[in-house]
Amino acid sequence: MNLRMKTTTALVSLGLLASPAFADMEAATAFLDAEIGDLSTLTRAEQEAEMQWFVDAAQPFAGMDIKVVSETIDTHSYESKVLAPAFTAITGIKVTHDLIGEGDVVEKLQTQMQSGENIYDGYVNDSDLIGTHWRYQQVRNLTDWMAGEGADVTSPTLDIDDFVGLSFTTGPDGKVYQLPTQQFANLYWFRYDWFNDDKNKADFKEKYGYDLGVPVNWSAYEDIAEFFTGRDLSHMGVDGEVFGNMDYGKKDPSLGWRYTDAWMSMAGMGDKGEPNGLPVDEWGIRVNEQSQPVGSCVARGGATNGPAAVYAVTKAIEWLQKYSPPSAAGMTFSEAGPIPAQGNVAQQMFWYTAFTAASVKPDLPVMNEDGTPKWRMAPSPHGVYWEEGMKVGYQDAGSWTLMQSTPVDRAKAAWLYAQFVTSKTVDVKKAHTGLTFIRESTIQHDSFTERAPKLGGLVEFYRSPARVQWSPTGTNVPDYPKLAQLWWQNIGDAMSGAKSPQEALDSLCADQERVLERLERAGIQGDIGPKLNEEMDPEHWLSQPGAPKAKLENEDDEPVTIAYDELIKSWQ
Asked: Are 508 and 255 spatial neighbours (Cβ–Cβ below 8 Å)?
């Protein structure tokens, strides 16, 4: 019997799942016995004390029905199917935790923002919307909430500083607007066994003149993609056609995420800065010293249609066409995700660690008999325009978000649930299930030291200082829902060949500026909303230091690789 069934059986045997009015520590004890055990950073006594606090704090809301929503990934499925029933049994608050598509979550939240109607009492909303939430002030900022109206339902053991993604959910005003409940990074994925094969290494060295290894830059990635595409790997027992790259290209909302999720920063389009480039970010949007967006096109000081952005899109299309499975061009994010684990892909530049759990299943062709993976993850290589000090990749931080339009009592009940599913009592077990780390204490837990060899570098990455170079969309983006939809529509035109990369990006930056202009005219974001620069000769901006950057004469720099084992040592 799996742990979820044990938990449910234990709670039902106590009559607590069916009768939440009986919520008390008996339900909590059953939950801790059946589901948590030693997989917690807290001792059993500390777990029981934390659960007792939830029992006591929830009493005013016992019998209340609340609804929360998140996208559908393993972590949230665990919250919805295991933690929500346990929370109901322990607190008497009945939670319906809906699982829907990421785009649908944003649509529901946008509808609630526009209508003021309380659709959900709590949202797991990506921190990509931090610029939206800070400017519109339609979500409760949690800093003030925890100190004021929500103080009586804020856990003394929440330990807000233990959350590793807090900088992503903090506005320029220093206030925390969202509480992370899952995080995953966009990293480089490769077949460690293929890269360490003597014949492959010798053949690569003979052809390219340098060692096969983890690519540090895009030139090396391209050579490796070319080398493995169509290569005969029968000497390693690999059947079927082999490809040197995996990606996706269908005109679909997920194509937009493919690019706004830091592909441009990986190429080197924006400015230096952590967690995001300033004054120009990875969307190509420039802000002034007051954090007001002032342009997206190069003519206004933006970089969305600049040479580095054109280079970024051109390379992605070229690699998709030359080195990827033919079906990849017609795939979405979710369709493309499982393909590398099927065993015929050498590497993938743009691979989300959220796929780790699905990529370490014992029966997969990318797994060894001893339970270790034949693959590894490593830092993403960077493009020719990239400079030290720039962000080099994306990190998703799905975070609990409380709308101002949600009645106080319902927001308090939802806040209790949000804290329960992120509590130190449950977080280690949740992290083992979904492999989406949110707490430093969890990352350092002994159980992950033991499991690290079977997770392909995930634990090493999250324990390394390198992780700060991966971040979500930052505060330059003033209205994520309105602007994000422009990306997949315009990039889709480049992917299909309807437009050149330059034409598609010219259209994209113009579309973005039309939205910025409408927000500026409406004045609804006050003195932190957009204030567009006057258009100038693009050469004025291209000749300035930083982004937008002038076109390089040679966009194929010297390829550089590094041995994976040396890379891991540098992290440690």
From this structure: no
Structure confidence by residue, pLDDT tens digits, 436-462:
999 999 999 999 999 999 999 999 999
Same-domain status, 433 and 322: no
Is 113 domain-assigned?
Answer: yes
In whole angstroms, what is the distance from residue 306 CA to residue 285 CA? 11
What are φ and ψ of residue 496, in 5° steps? Answer: -80, -15
Task: Report the domain count for the chain.
Answer: 2
CATH number of the domain to which 47 belongs: 3.40.190.10
Count other Cβ atoms within 10 Å, centred on residue 219: 18
Q: Which two tokens stand for residue 438?
A: 């949110």
User: Which residue range is the domain that position 551 belongs to?
Assistant: 211-350+478-572
- What proportion of the chain, given as a percentage, has pLDDT over 70? 96
- What DSSP designation does 380 have? P
Please tell me the predicted confidence (pLDDT) of residue 23.
55
Terminal-residue alpha carbon distance, the chain: 38
* Phi, psi (degrees; rounded to nearest 5) at 546: 75, -165
Q: Strand runs (DSSP E) across 74-140, as ranges?
A: 94-100, 122-126
The last residue of a domain, from among 419, 443, 466 = 466
| Mean pLDDT value across residues 290-312 | 98
Tokens standing for residue 561: 């690789």
Per the CB < 8 A criterion, the answer to whether 537 and 296 are in contact is no
Q: Is 496 found in the same domain as 432?
A: no
- pTM, whole model, 2 decimals? 0.91
Name residue 352's beta-bridge partners: 186
482 and 461 share a domain?
A: no
Contact 228, 190 (CB under 8 A): no
Q: Is the pLDDT of residue 362 over 80?
A: yes
9 shares its domain with 53: yes
Residue 12 sits in the same domain as residue 116: yes
